[in-house]
Design goal:
The chain is an alpha/beta fold. 53% of the residues lie in helices and 8% in strands. It has 20 helices and 6 strands. It has a 6-stranded parallel beta sheet, with helices on both faces. Helix 11 packs antiparallel against helix 12. The radius of gyration is 25 Å and the shape is elongated. The structure holds 2'-deoxyguanosine-5'-diphosphate and fe (iii) ion (2 copies).
């Protein structure tokens, strides 16, 4: 029988005490998995600063990505209206009748259990595991578990762990006061907060200039793991193409590498977020871009490269900006990024009419020929997809290179 532990909460933001509590419950009760299940933002405005569901989701994912038995669950985020724990537990019980459910909470929450919505119903579907937290110390926790279990006719068991005084509220207060939270939450979460100026922090605080290591840390704290690995491969491929085609390999190889690393740096935002960020930063979007938000991440990425990562090299920024559509009369660096994105070794797609390996070979012979092969493939692919709108710039680029290559 599979034993699933559920960690609920706002995770505003997730921190090390959440992770330690989950791990302690996992070990002591031999659980198979722990599901981190953030709750929805309340529809009415509240006093405390709850950041968007997307931000909270991504911070949780970065905190647990490398731990195989910690799993992200968007079950509560996807549900309509107010979500009560008792309903979530009932739903899980119905969906997974063979699993045993454990709901993991802090002792401070257990002390308030009577105020929860239908505590008896919660205990009907799951066992509550409570860890020392807040005013409820390791000395009190056993007694409190027994008391609440008897009162609400269910099983409430203690999780033994050292009392850790980290809370999301502490973190928000420290950030607002400009203090470090590095020992309070995993490093990627700390970086994510800084990069997005969450909890009252000024976004401008983080200026990164040419420090590759820090840049990579920031990218891996914002991009999903697969996308991050893709950007590393594009950077490597772009560097190789620069070796092959650039006149000044000493400088151009590292510029190509940097542009490759950053080309998808805005790719993690949802379409809605991208539209609202472009509005905020005065980036003009065409109607086609508003309808097909997959086209926006180049423009927004170029903005982030400049403002967030301090890249002043205009050609690197324009290579990022045009990497999805291309544009007529591209510079060598712009071509290299466009091509590297398509041919990087992780790409496995079935390309027509030009197979990927042919495009790869041609890329190291003649950039314009390779470009036309990719554009032909892309236009063919987009035409074959019903309802897919081809961007005006993609068409212009295709026509331009079709006219150029004999
Ligand atoms: O960001 P990547 O996935 O690495 O690659 P990309 O920047 O080339 O983006 C690929 C996406 O962009 C893919 O979903 C297809 C889409 N795309 C590219 N050109 C056009 C396009 N979508 C539309 N609607 N029109 C285009 O002209
Ligand atoms: Fe892209
Ligand atoms: Fe890409």
């Amino acid at each position: 029988m599979k034993k699933i532990g559920i960690m609920g909460g706002t995770f505003n933001p997730i921190h090390n005490a959440h992770l330690m509590m989950a791990q302690a419950a996992y070990e002591q009760y031999h659980l198979d998995e722990i599901w981190f299940m953030p709750s929805k933002n309340p529809p009415h405005k509240r006093k405390i600063d709850i950041v968007s569901e997307e931000h909270r989701t991504r911070m949780i994912q970065f905190a647990i990505d490398t731990i195989p038995h910690f799993i992200f669950s968007d079950l509560e985020l996807r549900r309509e209206g107010i979500t009560y724990t008792c309903d979530t537990m009932k739903m899980l019980h119905k969906k997974y009748p063979k699993a045993r459910l454990y709901f993991i909470i802090g002792g401070d929450s257990l002390a308030e259990f009577a105020k929860w919505h239908l505590p008896e119903k919660i205990l009907k579907y799951c066992t509550v595991l409570a860890a020392p937290r807040g005013a409820v110390t390791d000395k009190h926790i056993k007694e409190l578990c027994k008391e609440q279990g008897e009162r609400f006719h269910g099983t409430v068991l203690p999780v033994a762990m050292n009392h850790i005084s980290i809370s999301s509220e502490d973190i928000r207060t420290r950030i607002c006061a400009g203090l470090s939270v590095l020992s309070y939450c995993p490093e990627p979460v700390d970086l994510y907060i800084k990069l997005h100026g969450l909890y009252g922090l000024k976004e401008e605080r983080l200026k990164i200039k040419n420090s590759t290591q820090l840049l990579l840390k920031c990218l891996s704290a914002t991009l999903r793991p697969g996308r991050y690995l893709h950007t590393l491969r594009v950077a490597g491929t772009a560097a190789s193409l620069a070796f092959c085609h650039c006149r000044q390999p000493e400088t151009d190889v590292s510029r190509a590498e940097l542009a490759g690393m950053l080309h998808d740096c805005a790719k993690y935002y949802t379409g809605e977020e991208m539209i609202s960020l472009c509005d905020k930063y005065d980036i003009t979007l065409s109607d086609t871009e508003k309808r097909n938000t997959a086209l926006i991440h180049g423009k927004l990425g170029a903005y982030l490269a400049r403002k967030r990562y301090g890249i002043c090299d205009g050609e690197i920024c324009s290579a990022i900006s045009y990497h999805t559509t291309g544009k007529p009369a591209m510079t060598v660096l712009e071509k290299i990024i466009y091509i590297a994105d398509y041919i990087e070794p992780g790409r496995k797609m079935d390309c027509r009419p030009y197979p990927l390996n042919e495009v790869r070979k041609e890329s190291f012979q003649n950039l314009d020929n390779a470009l036309l092969m990719i554009l032909t493939n892309t236009v063919t692919y987009l035409k074959g997809r019903t309802g897919e709108e081809i961007d005006e710039l993609t068409i212009q680029t295709y026509n331009y290179y079709k006219g150029m290559v004999i």
